[in-house]
Amino acid sequence: MSRRKGSGKGRRTLLVLGGTAAVAVVVLAGAASSGVLGGRTKTAAPSASPPATAEVTRKTMERWITVPGAVTYGSAQPLTGHAQGTVTWLPASGTVLRRGDALARVDNRPVVLLYGKLPAYRELAPNTKGEDVEEFTTNLSALGYGGFTPGDDTYTAGVEAAVKRWQKALGGAETGRIALGDVVYADGARRVAQRGAAIGAAAVPELLTVTGTTPRAKLTVPVEDAELAVKGVRLKVSTTGGGSTDATVIAVGGPHTDDSGGNVQDVTVSLADPSAVSSGTGRGSGTLTGRYLAGRHENALTVPVSALLALSGGGYGVETLDGHGRGHVVAVRLGLFVDGRVEVTGDGLAPGTKVGTAR
Q1: CA 13 to chain CA centroid, nearest Å
Q2: Of the candidates 105, 230, 328, 335, which lies 20 to 30 Å from 150 by C-alpha distance?
Q3: Closest CA to 265 of 236, 229, 238
Q4: Within 10 A of 350 (CB to CB), how many other CB atoms are there?
Q5: What are phi and psi of 142, to 5 degrees?
C-alpha cells in the first residue's frame, strides 16, 4: 500500500460531474487512475499515523446543477397590416397590446389590434357578408358595442351604427365603414419586440414584430448535464434580485457551441409564477439562473474527498483506523460528491468510523 506522505503533496483530486453521479479522478505521481471498486480490501502494514483523520458520517447527499439563463417571450413574428400613409406613432418595445389597442397611428389614425385567425383583406361596409364580417362583429361585441348580433356574418345597419360609435371613441372620422388597413388581426394579446417602421416614414406592411405575452426562461445547459434537457423535468428558476419560482422544461434545442466554445443546449422552461422573475419587476431584476436537483441519496455514508486513495490495482479506497491507530485500506464504491464530501460504500464502514485524510 502507498501511504500518504507529509502534507499529501503530489496527490490531487479532480471532480468531473456527469449524469446523476460524479466520478473522481485521482492523480498520483503524474499517472491518472479512474473507476470504482468491487468490495476488495487490502490490509495496511503498521506505520506512522496519517497526517489527519475524519469520521464517516451519514447524511442526505444532493447534487444540484446550476445553469445561466434569461427571460424570453418566444420567437418574434411580424404583425402585418395594410395601412397606407405616414407613420405618426408606434408603441415602445415591451408594450403589451390587447384587443382594441392601437398598434400604430398612420396619418394620425389608429390601426387597431383585434383577435382572430383570418387576416383583414377588404373593406367592410353595409351589406358585406362573409367570415371576415363574422370575425369583426365578434370583436366589436367583445369591445362592448351592441345593437347587432355578435358573430353575425352580415354587415347590417346595426353594425354600421356600432362602428360609428366606436370610431367616435377612437377619435376618428365616423364613416361607419372599416377600411382595409384600419384593423390587424392576431390570435391573442401580443408583446412588442421591436418596431418595423420609423416614425415619420412611410408605412410598411410589417409595422411591428411581436411575441407572446407569457414570460418564460431560456437556460443554457452544458451537454454533459443532459438530464436537465428533457421535457417535463422540474426545477427552480431565480434571479439575483431575489425572485424565485418553480419551473418545468417545455422545449429542448439541439446541441450547439456557445461563445466560449463549450457544447451546450438551450432549454425553455415554463414558470409557475412568471411575475417572480420577469423583466421590469422589482424582484425579477438581475441575472437569471436555473437550479436542478440532479441526484439525491438519503442516509448515505460519506467521507471527505481528501480521504480517497488511488489503489495500485485500480479503483479507490479509504484508510480506516482502529483504536490503536493501526490502519487498513477498505475498497469503496463512489457516489455523489457534495461540498467536499463523497458518498462511499465499503465493507465495515459505519457512522463514526475514523479514516485517514490528507492534511
Answers
A1: 32
A2: 105
A3: 229
A4: 9
A5: -65, -25
Question: What's the angle, vertex CA 27, arms to CA 23 and CA 28, rounded to 5?
Answer: 145
Q: How buried is 299 (Cβ within 10 angstroms: 0-12 exposed, 13-18 middle, 19+ buried)?
A: exposed
Structure-block grid coordinates of residue 203: 408605412
> Which H/E stretch holds residue 31?
strand 31-34
Whether residue 62 contacts residue 212, with contact meaning beta carbons closer than 8 Å, is answered with no
DSSP 137-191: HHHHHHTT--SS-TT-SB--HHHHHHHHHHHHHHTS---S-B-TTSEEEESS-EE
Helix (H) or strand (E) holding 354: strand 354-357
Higher pLDDT, 88 or 31: 88
Residue 262 grid coordinates: 463549450
Q: What is the pLDDT of residues 53-67, one digit of tens each?
A: 999 999 999 888 889
Which residues on adjacent β-strands are paired with residue 244? Answer: 238
